[in-house]
Design brief:
four-stranded antiparallel sheet; TIM Barrel; Arc Repressor Mutant, subunit A; alpha/beta; binds iron/sulfur cluster; nine-stranded mixed sheet
Length: 457
């Protein structure tokens, strides 16, 4: 067999989109948003609205989303969001909070009607102050992408539209349990192109049963015809509660890694810069560099997470239709949205880990001097495993990369980038690992670790 992997390590352990994982969150008592609102003083914060409705449940999905809901259910949800916005506005106004970024994700936000989409943008505008050069991103799916709805996004000043295409092969879409087909995805992309949004992102998946290197490259080649600004390439994970967990075909990580290597080479040759294992960006676009270890983000609706300093919170992690619906009902009946009843308060040690994980896995990497400035110690001393990774060729120390003067970054090598989902989980603390394990054991009736598209903010 052709050796395409490194030291027989499985590169696909877990996607560390954020840290800690929601399964490490627990019930909290005596915490109010009012006590943390000062963290959101002034500019530079993120706002996220979760729209937890989809046309059908994809086979790999373990996100907070439900199917089979109609206009009335959507209206009820937006009534809850409206009351939440009103309370958050009252809490944040004294701190002169301004948001630099709004993301509307899900679920499938464009499943809502045109009037409901209008209502969302009106609500946000009436409740929050957005910075002048703010970014607004919206996620969509091919079946829900219509000319009229894109017109509403355009009018609202949306700067980034992200569409989950996953594959241009109908057989692969079928294997994933996606509702759309390749022809519809092409039509939706054509519509998106006509609207001339500043940034179009398309998501693809590799490691799909039946997928080959050739079929993956064919999908990417078709995507390039539409000149996307960004491409996200996700390995297929089948984790907690996803429909495909009972599928007889176990994912073959060796095949998946070979597909990844070929796709990365293909996209580099096509003029894409690789900012992380998943994110490929057209070289001409500036690199978005933020203090991602400490960034603040406030979530609206049910199922999204908020990050306010060392406090992370959200509604309890739900993966079955039944538990999602129960939480939606609770959300819609919530009277006081300032009460924070589920989440985690991170210790200083966990904040260090978060900082390392959030920076190391994204280019330009972990800023070593900044780390010292924040925490008073050196990252390589605090996390000796980083030194081992230098020796093993996963990471290297590099000069500023033109982003910051006189900064040394610990940056993933090409090998390390491909092994991000192996390296990230190694950095999980014993305490968080224990909590995640406990959650898995309680919920093991949902099957082995399942999942697919990444967790969203
Ligand atoms: S993967 Fe996305 S589109 Fe599919 S069910 Fe989950 S949230 Fe909905």
């Amino acid at each position: 067999m052709k050796k395409v992997f490194h030291n027989n390590i499985n590169p696909y352990v877990q996607y560390m989109y954020s840290y800690p994982h929601k399964t490490a969150y627990r019930a909290l008592a005596g915490i109010s948003l009012r006590d943390y609102a000062r963290v959101m003083a002034g500019k530079g914060h993120g706002l996220y609205l979760h729209v937890p409705f989809c046309q059908g449940k994809c086979g790999y999905c373990n996100l907070f989303s439900v199917t089979g809901q109609g206009t009335e259910a959507f209206d009820q949800y937006l009534d809850g969001v409206e009351r939440q916005c009103g309370q958050y506005k009252e809490i944040l106004t004294p701190y002169e909070t301004e948001f630099s970024e709004l993301t509307i994700g899900g679920g499938t936000p464009l499943l809502l009607s045109e009037d409901q989409l209008d209502r969302i943008f009106g609500l946000i505008e009436a409740s929050f102050v957005m910075e002048k050069d703010r970014e607004i991103g919206v996620e969509t799916a091919p079946n829900q992408t219509t000319f009229e709805k894109l017109g509403i996004l355009k009018q609202a000043g949306v700067t980034r539209v992200s569409m989950g295409i996953q594959s241009f092969s109908d057989e692969e879409l079928e294997a994933l349990g996606r509702k759309h087909r390749a022809k519809r995805a092409m039509e939706a992309l054509e519509l998106l192109k006509c609207m001339d949004f500043p940034c179009i992102n398309v998501d693809f998946i590799y490691g799909i049963p039946g997928q080959t290197v050739d079929s993956l490259l064919e999908s990417l080649q078709k995507a390039l015809c539409f000149e996307p600004d960004e491409i996200f390439l996700y390995p297929l994970y089948i984790k907690h509660g996803a429909g495909l967990v009972h599928s007889k075909t176990a994912p073959d990580w060796q095949c998946a890694y070979e597909q990844y290597q070929n796709a990365a080479r293909f996209l580099h040759a096509a003029g894409f810069r690789q900012d992380s294992m998943r994110r490929f960006v057209k070289k001409k676009r500036p690199r978005n560099f933020s203090e991602c270890g400490f960034g603040t983000s406030l979530a609206l609706g049910c199922g999204g997470r908020s990050y306010l300093g060392n406090l992370h919170f959200c509604t309890p992690y739900a993966i079955t239709r039944e538990t999602c619906l129960k939480q939606l009902e609770e959300f819609e009946h919530t009277k006081d949205f300032s009460v924070i009843s589920h989440g985690i308060v991170l210790s200083k040690e966990e904040m260090r880990r978060r900082y390392v994980i959030r920076h190391l896995l994204i280019r330009p990497g972990l800023p070593l001097n900044q780390y010292k400035k924040h925490f008073g110690s050196w990252a390589l001393e605090d996390f000796p495993v980083l030194k081992e990774w230098i020796q093993q060729g996963f990471v290297q120390i590099q000069q500023s990369d033109g982003i910051r003067d006189s900064e040394d970054f610990l940056t993933l090598t090409e090998l390390g980038t491909g092994f991000s989902d192996y390296l990230g989980p190694v950095l999980i603390s014993d305490n968080v690992r224990e909590r995640m394990k406990e959650w898995d054991e309680i919920h093991e009736s949902f099957g082995n670790l399942v999942s697919g598209e990444p967790e969203k903010l």
